[in-house]
Design a protein that fits this description.
Strand content: 5-15%
CATH superfamily: Alkaline Phosphatase, subunit A
Number of domains: 1
CATH topology: Alkaline Phosphatase, subunit A
Order of helices and strands: HHEHEEEEHHEEEHHHHEHHEEEH
Structural class: alpha/beta
CATH class: Alpha Beta
Radius of gyration: 23 Å
Shape: globular
Oligomer: single chain
Number of strands: 12
Distance between the termini: 35 Å
Largest sheet: 8 strands, mixed
Strand order of the largest sheet: 4-12-5-11-10-1-9-6
CATH architecture: 3-Layer(aba) Sandwich
Length: 461
């Protein structure tokens, strides 16, 4: 067995320990740990980090003129279908790989532009008989072709996250993790507007919306009723074993627990804020969390779950489709607005919607940066070993079009993806081609997926 290298003076008295041993000895807590070189040294061979898959879903579409290159001067939609012929500087651009142009909405990606690609020209087929918003969310990751399911008005079967988890989620405590930033209490729409993850036709995988409940589910221990702070408990239990780590691993260990502590502190601040609001009897919309903080916190919980090995597959809905409830966007908009309602009056609200689109991309870029900063085995990062997708089920929120969907693919897919490009697809290329590419990248043998016609070879190295 190869002994770990360390700069600690008493290293010669140490014995390498495996990850499972560490967790079992750490006082019985179920808190998983990030990759640590010292613990990996005890495993057979140099195992590669697992591949992960995560989705950052935008509801109600986007404003095309802000998101897509070459569309800054296009007229605001008038409920007329668009096409996915890309024109740039007055010229029709052929399908293929092009330099990545960052539009005003995509500007937050600048720092991470070498780690992501814009993909344009991908389509879905709308199956008539249900609301376009409901299908946009619920069928975004569907594994079935339109009209293939006879028992449902929705072309919906086991979604991509669960299909992938059947292969890459068997060894994690949670095969999948479903999160949503919709904590409104007025349930004004059906589950199809507010869930993108499904076990099968008619069987939803319900999203978790409360950060505290997500935290307790991911990091809670049997002792958490007696010990308020799980970080204190885990550190006490793991203290003797922490001394057995190398200097670098001790730094990673401290960094990981600092991340957990930061999440705890932010949730404490949110709860205190909610208490103060109730005491002051301030009337606000049904949502009490500051929107920015809420989305950032749920994103951090997703990244930490991927980092710690609690799950390899996660979805995060930034908000629900079509709900008309006004929402406070502190620091972005001057008063509560309904995102969905604004998308139907882009001429009046275009500047506000563009601000929200920009914020959503900023939140996505922020998570990319976090993932890029998390080191894993072989000199790689969490982002290198993750397929992290930003997307929406509509190509435009006003026209309800299902073609030319907005898609950003971040992460290296374990070194299998091209990065830093704009990939423009042939007209009528199914979105399912991208999903099929993901599955094959993860070693899942599938010849087709939903209405796919092949893989996106331009994305592969």
């Amino acid at each position: 067995m190869k002994h770990l290298k360390t700069n600690h003076p008493s290293a010669e008295n140490r014995h390498p320990q495996g990850r499972r041993q560490f967790l079992a000895a750490a006082g019985g807590t179920v808190l998983s740990l990030p990759w640590l070189e010292s613990l990996q040294a005890a495993t057979a061979g140099n195992e590669k980090p697992p591949l992960r898959m995560a989705f950052f879903y935008l509801p109600n579409g986007i404003v095309r003129r802000g998101f897509f290159p070459g569309e800054s001067d296009r007229e605001l939609p008038k409920f007329a279908g668009q096409n996915n012929v890309w024109r740039f500087e007055g010229k029709t651009v052929p399908a293929g790989i092009h330099p990545l142009t960052l539009t005003p909405t995509l500007a937050p990606l600048h720092k991470m532009r070498k780690h992501c690609s814009l993909i344009t020209g991908l389509d879905r087929i709308f199956q008539h008989g249900t609301d376009s918003h409901a299908q946009a969310a619920s069928c975004y990751l569907t594994s079935v072709a339109p009209y293939a399911v006879k028992s449902s008005a929705y072309p919906l079967a086991r979604t991509l996250d669960h299909v992938a988890a059947d292969a890459i989620g068997k060894t994690t405590p949670f095969p999948t993790l479903e999160l949503s930033c919709n904590d409104h209490k007025n349930n004004i729409e059906s589950i199809y507007f507010d869930n993108m993850s499904w076990y099968d036709t008619g069987h939803v995988a319900p999203s978790m919306r409360n950060p505290r409940k997500v935290y307790d589910r991911l990091f809670g221990t049997q002792q958490n009723t007696q010990h308020r702070n799980i970080t204190d408990l885990a550190l006490r239990s793991a203290h003797s074993l922490q001394r057995k780590l190398s200097r670098d691993d001790r730094a990673r260990f401290d960094e990981y627990f600092d991340a957990i502590r930061t999440i705890e502190n932010r949730m404490d601040r949110i709860e205190q804020m909610k208490t103060d609001l109730l005491r002051a009897q301030i009337k606000r919309p049904a949502e009490h969390l500051p929107r920015n903080e809420y989305i950032h916190l749920m994103g951090d919980l997703l990244v930490t779950a991927l980092q710690s090995g609690l799950t390899n597959v996660g979805t995060l809905m930034v908000g629900p489709e079509r709900w008309t409830t006004p929402t406070n966007w502190e620091g972005i908009l001057d008063k509560p607005y309904s995102h969905h309602a604004m998308t139907h009056d882009q001429k009046t609200h275009v500047e506000n919607i563009l601000k929200l689109d920009y914020f959503h991309v900023s939140a996505y870029a922020r998570l990319m940066e976090r993932m890029q900063g998390i080191q894993e085995a072989g000199g790689t990062t969490l982002l290198d070993n993750t397929i992290f997708t930003l997307g929406a089920g509509m190509g435009d929120g006003a026209t309800h079009q299902y073609n030319d969907l907005p898609v950003i693919v971040a992460g290296g897919g374990g070194g299998q993806f091209r990065q830093g490009n704009h990939i423009h697809c042939q007209r009528e290329t199914p979105l399912a081609n991208l999903w099929l590419t993901y599955l094959q990248t993860m070693g899942i043998e599938r010849e087709s997926y939903a209405d796919s016609t092949g893989v996106l070879g331009e994305l592969l190295v």
